[in-house]
Specification:
Blueprint (H helix, E strand, L loop, with lengths): L6 E3 L2 E4 L11 E6 L5 E6 L31 E3 L4 E5 L21 E6 L5 E6 L15 E6 L5 E8 L4 E6 L5 E6 L41 E4 L13 E3 L4 E8 L2 E5 L16 E4 L5 E8 L4 E8 L7 E3 L3 E5 L4 E6 L5 E6 L9 E5 L2 E8 L4 H6 L14 E6 L1
Antiparallel strand pairs: 1-2, 2-3, 3-4, 5-6, 6-7, 7-8, 9-10, 10-11, 11-12, 13-16, 14-15, 15-18, 16-17, 18-19, 20-21, 21-22, 22-23, 24-25, 25-26
């Protein structure tokens, strides 16, 4: 199943795939727009003897059903002919003892050669992930001033694990990382040099991180923060190049995990292969959080009553976002002070966009709550149960 829009590069439509919870082997593929023939296909779970295959250390061929979905559209850097694409969680999601090793290239950002699909570099955020912390979020490509009059060419990614990352988009080298949610319990923090969780031990096949809260075969029920919906999910971030501020639509969440031990016989086509599952014991809120990309520090935070499910639009002076309770809100781009609000009467889980006609600028947003939140997470926001589903386009003039 393909859930993201294709990325069009050099006459090719490049797409990814969803389904890590169903025992797939993820991929990214390019199709020629004229001939409609596949040009290249790169699997996010390496095959036998391919680079990265050594990071699957089990004896039951776990990488054959290792997950690694690529269900959000990637980015393209024409200056280096590089596609930067995020990769989702390994499978099974919560039983990481089934798949010892770092499990490349899951939970990673990949730099791919646009012509061949060859992996140029990778950066992995949560090796041997036992939390369902996809790294599928969009990568925002920005240039910022560096030391000694240099320019840093960054790829920015707000990860479901609650940390925001900047890596060098030419090499994948870690530059900075910081938490953008208020509560992170799965790790004590990031190593300032590598950006890996401070508890990460490359000599260990099965990572425990903050062991008392990490789901495992010996810790079968536990609470983690952020929850498996992530500190950010699919809703897109936005960037203001004048202010060098990056705005993240935040989900402040925790959840309860129950672990189920997986065995190879449980891998069945089109059936969940997750190693357990989550529930939501506490209320979920959110924020719009601004990060100064020149310093890697939080520059501001506008708290919201509900999780930010719709993404963000940035203009030179304003930041627009919507709430699942129906409000469309404009904030000051520098201070994140709320300047304007309009209640649409329907839940918002789509990002705003902007366009101009005859020199007049407009902001448009599609309103109508639905999708995964209603299906899996609504109990953590009980007030939203009364929101009516629907579909209405609102357009505002600036």
């Amino acid at each position: 199943m393909i859930t993201g829009a294709p990325l069009i590069v050099k006459g090719m439509a490049i797409t990814g795939v969803a389904g890590a919870e169903y025992g797939i082997r993820g991929w990214i593929a390019a199709t020629d727009l004229k001939s409609q023939k596949e040009v290249w296909r790169t699997h996010t779970i390496p095959g036998k003897d391919e680079p990265g295959s050594e990071t699957w250390k089990d004896d039951k061929n776990a990488k054959a059903s290792g997950g690694g979905s690529t269900w959000v559209t990637g980015s393209y850097d024409p200056s280096t002919n590089t596609i930067v694409w995020g990769v989702g969680n390994p499978g099974p999601d919560w039983d990481n003892e089934y798949r010892p090793g770092d499990n490349l290239y899951t939970d990673s950002s990949l730099g791919l050669d646009a012509d061949t699909g060859k992996i140029k570099w990778h950066y992995q955020h949560t090796p041997n992930d036992p939390y369902d912390y996809d790294s599928v979020a969009e990568n925002v490509l920005v240039d910022v001033p560096g030391p000694n009059n240099t320019t840093l060419k960054l790829a920015l990614e707000a990860d479901r694990n609650g940390f925001a990352y900047a890596v060098d988009r030419n090499s994948g080298k870690f530059i900075w990382g910081l938490p953008f949610v208020k509560k992170v319990t799965w790790t004590k923090g990031l190593d300032p040099e590598s950006g890996k969780p401070v508890e990460y031990d490359p000599k260990q096949g099965v990572q425990k991180y903050n062991a008392p809260v990490t789901p495992s075969r010996t810790n079968k029920e536990t609470d983690i923060c952020p929850g498996n919906m992530g500190g950010k999910n699919w809703p897109p971030t936005a960037y203001n190049p004048n202010l060098k501020l990056w705005y993240i639509p935040v989900i402040e969440s925790c959840n309860h995990i129950k672990v189920e031990e997986m065995t190879p016989d449980k891998v069945k086509a089109r059936e969940f292969f997750t190693g357990g599952g989550p529930s939501q014991p506490v209320k979920i809120t959110g924020s719009v959080t601004a990060i100064d990309v020149t310093t890697g520090k939080v520059a501001g935070k506008a708290e919201t009553q509900f999780p930010n499910l719709g993404g963000i639009l940035a203009t030179p002076d304003l930041v627009f976002s919507g709430q699942p309770s129906g409000e469309v809100i404009a904030y000051d781009a520098k201070s994140l002070q709320q300047l304007w609000q309009f209640n649409t009467g329907g839940g918002v889980n789509a990002p705003p966009m902007t366009f101009s006609v005859d020199g007049k600028q407009y902001v448009a947003i599609l309103v109508g709550l639905g999708g995964a939140w209603d299906k899996w997470f609504i109990d953590a926001t009980p007030e939203l149960k009364r929101m009516q589903p629907g579909s209405m386009l609102y357009v505002f003039a600036l």
